[in-house]
Amino acid sequence: MTDKGLWSYKEIAAHIRVQPDTVRSYRKHGLLPPPDHVENGKPYWYADTVRTWVANRPGNRGSR
């Protein structure tokens, strides 16, 4: 099953239980995958992209 919903910093932050500014910092430091879509200069990621990133990122503590 694939989820093609687009997530902003806010949704990603809620998913990994951090503040949106933390997710922005991850992107700034190259720790977040490139956005799947950019609209009006705002980046968005597919939920599946985020879930794959969370499962494979260093320091993953088995969350979701």
Automatic annotation (TrEMBL):
MF terms (GO), sorted A to Z: DNA binding
A GO biological-process term: regulation of DNA-templated transcription
HTH merR-type domain residues: 9-42
Extent of the signal sequence: none
InterPro entries: DNA-bd_dom_put_sf (IPR009061), MerR-type_HTH_dom (IPR000551)
Name listed for the protein in its UniProt record: MerR family transcriptional regulator
Organism: Streptomyces liangshanensis
Organism ancestry: Bacteria, Bacillati, Actinomycetota, Actinomycetes, Kitasatosporales
